[in-house]
Design brief:
single chain, alpha/beta, 11 helices, 14 strands, binds P-hydroxybenzoic acid
């Protein structure tokens, strides 16, 4: 891959990435148990992977109500903001770049994580999804329909989290507006029955996301904000595709041209949509035609298919998730054609260094 396009530099806003291989956000559950802060171990993990052109951190909750998994880090408190500094410093020492993914899981939480409170959602509709807790899997509950005041509060929390991210030394932020989490729950008619200005029309269902963007712009330049969308996964994290889905994403992505974002991060379908009515199996191809800015694509790419999609002009950056788990030196392996190590799934969400920072490096 020595002279391949994946291995060529790329400018995102005013930041030059040394290659187009992005480490995709991966939940790994190694944050400190009590305060949800990043640890020395987490800093080491990202340091090992800093040869990526860009690292996007694991999803990090913007509010105590945004958490839905065990030991995920937050970015809403002073302690959390401070703790992230060891991570950004480690990555920068290695010459890498790192954005933090800002996350609110909405109805995909459980009272277990919320001191007994009900998860927040656009409407009181149970996703009927299994939630991983330290006490084992629990079924999701009927969430609380958010008041307009609560929606405004979440918008404010996204802004504050972006401000904290800058203080913590991140190069930028990625808004997690996909995969069935809170913002995506607003976009989808199956999880949003609201009749006020946040429900009904495409404009109303996507309103919260533009409010989040506009709020963040008060704290961070637009070209330091990335946005992640997953337009075409069916029966994934409690959301389904219907005839509104693609027109809604088309509308939203067209409007994103009014912003000078760092990038738009799209996922190809996470689930088989070959027989799903209204689903689009080729997300990058569809949205390359609609979106004028930097397009990052993810899901199941290899060095060959990643190079191909960039050479074909369909994407600018390729995000790799699972391959980065067992290959901290993934960039080196892709450059040299070395065999990739396979990850141990049983340690994806456990504690400690096993299956986290103990994968071998070849370079
Ligand atoms: C997961 O931990 O399973 C997970 C987290 C965030 C995502 C998708 C999956 O966006």
């Amino acid at each position: 891959m020595k002279n391949s396009v994946l291995n060529s530099p790329y400018k995102v806003g005013d930041i030059t990435l040394r290659n187009r291989i992005v480490m995709a956000p991966l939940t790994r559950g190694r944050a400190d148990n009590d305060e949800n802060v990043a640890t020395k171990l987490i800093a080491e993990y990202y340091r090992q992977r800093a040869t990526a052109g860009l690292i996007i951190s694991e999803g990090s909750q913007i509010s105590p109500m945004g958490v839905g998994y065990v030991n995920t880090p937050g970015i809403y408190s002073k302690e959390q903001t401070h703790a992230w500094k060891q991570v950004t410093e480690a990555v920068h020492e290695e010459g890498g770049k790192i954005f933090i993914q800002l996350w609110h899981v909405g109805r995909l939480s459980h009272p277990y994580f919320l001191n007994g409170k009900l998860p927040l959602a656009p409407s009181a509709i149970n996703p009927h999804h299994s939630i991983r807790t330290p006490e084992g899997n629990k079924m999701s509950v009927l969430p609380k329909e958010m008041s307009v005041r609560e929606i405004k509060e979440v918008v404010r929390e996204f802004g504050l989290a972006a401000s904290n991210a800058i203080e913590a030394g991140f190069d930028g932020v990625e808004i997690h507006s996909s995969n069935g989490y809170l913002l995506h729950q607003f976009f989808a008619p199956c999880s949003n029955f609201r009749t006020d200005e946040y429900g009904g029309t495409m404009k109303n269902r996507t309103r919260i996301m533009f409010e989040v963007l506009d709020q963040m712009k008060m704290y961070i330049p637009e070209n330091r904000i990335g946005l992640r969308l997953n337009p075409s996964s069916h029966d994934y994290h409690g959301l389904t595709i219907d005839k509104e889905t693609l027109p809604t994403f088309d509308y939203m992505i067209e409007r994103l041209n009014d912003y000078d974002l760092a990038y738009l991060h799209l996922s190809e379908p996470f689930t088989d949509v070959s027989n799903v009515a209204f689903a689009e199996p080729n997300i990058a191809i569809r949205y390359r035609k609609i979106y004028n800015g930097t397009l990052m694509i993810n899901k199941g790419f290899t060095v060959e298919t990643g190079n191909q999609i960039i050479e074909d002009g369909i994407a600018d950056l390729v995000a790799f998730g699972v391959p980065f788990i067992a290959n901290p030196d993934l960039v080196y392996r892709m450059k040299t054609g070395a065999t990739l190590s396979l990850p141990d799934k049983s340690t994806y969400y456990t504690t400690g260094s096993k299956g986290y920072t103990d994968y071998a490096e070849l370079d």
